[in-house]
Amino acid sequence: CVKWLNRELGETQGRFLRQRFPESVDIIGMLSEFARRVRPQLRLIMPPTPPSIVLAASEVVGYAKTGGLADVCGYLPGALAAQGHKVSVIMPLYRAVRNGRRPIEPTSMVLYVPLSKGTYTARLWKGPLSGDVPIYFIEQAEFFERDDPNKGTSLYQFTSDDGEKTDYPDNCLRYAFFSRAVLEAIHQLGLTADVL
After folding, report:
1. What is the pLDDT of residue 25?
2. What is the pLDDT of residues 103-145, one digit of tens each?
3. What is the rounded CA–CA span in Å between residue 97 and residue 145?
4. Residue of 40, 22, 30 lying closest to 5 (CA atoms)
């Protein structure tokens, strides 16, 4: 945020804004406060079209849900699209998604995702989210098709023999893979991501 302000407004004016609005510590708060107080000048530095947004999420309501994250990631894209943004969503292809009520279909795109332990192969699937918002799924069975309520497994955890819920020991690797696969998918799909 500081670099953006310095680049867009010049270092002196950027420093002035940070000093003038010290109550705005986080990026969103700072930019919101900035936009509210300096609205006329904001039009001069903002792009003429709304930014394109790619939302990467581990769960999206309607496909896979364990908590509030899924709700936000399911409804926010439609609201952003209604404001004129071009929005796409990418999430893992869990067993719950594959066996769910909403239709999904494979694409012809294969991703090669390099990680420290080697290169993993994944395939992209596509489905509808809301209105014109597409949702893409990253298929990698080793990482994401573990959820099976009949076996006591979910998106992020499994139930041990003593009935204790335990995180999968490779969750860090699973979601590092997902993060890297999202970048590969954006490139292969030709998406513009002003905001990721």
Report:
1. 44
2. 899 999 999 999 887 899 999 999 988 888 999 999 999 999 9
3. 9
4. 30
> pTM (2 decimals)?
0.73
**CA-based radius of gyration for the chain:** 20
Task: Note the pLDDT of residue 154.
Answer: 75
pLDDT in tens, 44-94: 555 567 888 999 999 888 888 888 888 888 888 888 888 888 999 999 999
d(CA 128, CA 107): 13
Tokens describing residue 121:
């192969």
Residue the block writes with tokens 């994401």: 144
- In which residue are the tokens 């023999």 written? 161
State the amino acid at position 81 in one-letter form.
Answer: A
Plot region of 10 (φ>0 → left; ψ -120 to 50 → alpha; else → beta): left
Three-state SS annotation for the chain:
CHHHHHHHHCHHHHHHHHHHCCCCCCHHHHHHHHHHHCHHHHHHHCCCCCCCEEEECCCECCCECCCHHHHHHHHHHHHHHHCCCCEEEEEECCHHHHCCCCCCEEEEEEEEEEECCEEEEEEEEEEEEECCEEEEEEECHHHHCCCEHHHCECCCEEECCCCCEEECCCHHHHHHHHHHHHHHHHHHHCCCCCEC
Compute the distance between CA of residue 21 and CA of residue 43 in angstroms, rounded to an integer. Answer: 19
